[in-house]
Write a structure and sequence with these properties.
The structure is a homodimer of 107-residue chains. The first copy, chain A, has 107 residues and is an alpha+beta fold. Chain A has a single domain, classed as Arc Repressor Mutant, subunit A (Orthogonal Bundle), CATH 1.10.10.10. Helices cover 61% and strands 13% of the residues of chain A. Chain A has a 3-stranded antiparallel β-sheet with strand order 1-3-2. The longest helix of chain A has 14 residues. Chains A and B meet through helix 2, helix 3, helix 4 and helix 6 of A and helix 2, helix 3, helix 4 and helix 6 of B. Chain B binds a DNA duplex (30 and 30 nucleotides) through helix 5.
Amino acid sequence: MEQYDQEEQLISNMDEEELLELADLFKMFADSTRIKILCDLFSGEKNVGEICDDLQMNQSAVSHQLKQLRAAKLVKGRRCGKAIYYSLADDHVSTIIAMGRDHIEEC
Amino acid sequence: MEQYDQEEQLISNMDEEELLELADLFKMFADSTRIKILCDLFSGEKNVGEICDDLQMNQSAVSHQLKQLRAAKLVKGRRCGKAIYYSLADDHVSTIIAMGRDHIEEC
DNA sequence: TGAACATATGATAATATATTCATATGTTCA
DNA sequence: TGAACATATGAATATATTATCATATGTTCA
């Protein structure tokens, strides 16, 4: 109905599907382990073992999180021998984290 | 120890506390109900009843989420008679959501 | 080929989170 | 004051998420 469409428009032109996609994207930043991984990659690509060392975390936990970050296209991996090197997929990652830090600082 | 401090620095100068704060902030965007509420406020301040109508949601659920958004300083409320009008606390909110949408579009 | 290494994955248990219901608090106005 | 309205809150349940353990997959090299 007309009324419903109008309300929907107020929610800034996003349909349910896009909203869920957005929420899923932000979920990636909603866990400190994943933020650590992302920030660890600010300095360049690293393999899983290096990430585990930097974060002092269990390999399995790191791999599970990397899987999610990959699915969200926030990181990408390339195999090099036995190791897989991960890096940030684009620079939205650092922009989004920077915005978050700004918000925290300013209030 | 020296080694540990060095690793921490790689995680872009953030200490554990700041990381947790950041994660908590992004948790606010990690749920489609809360994103809907935030987006609903893009068009200006609204009271709880209006938000419930726009989102077709239960008053209690909306209040619970507003409480979290208030705690994260993403929205603020002012009482006007019986109603409480909520609005976005600053414009990081729309910037962060815009960055998220950009990321989704571009991949 | 098979041993050693690096990473991924499935299942499980512990924990966190969202929604709902019932009810409390705060405000207005007759 | 008390009835009606608007919003907030506590408790309970349902669902989602994370870390861990055990194990599987993929790669190298002797």
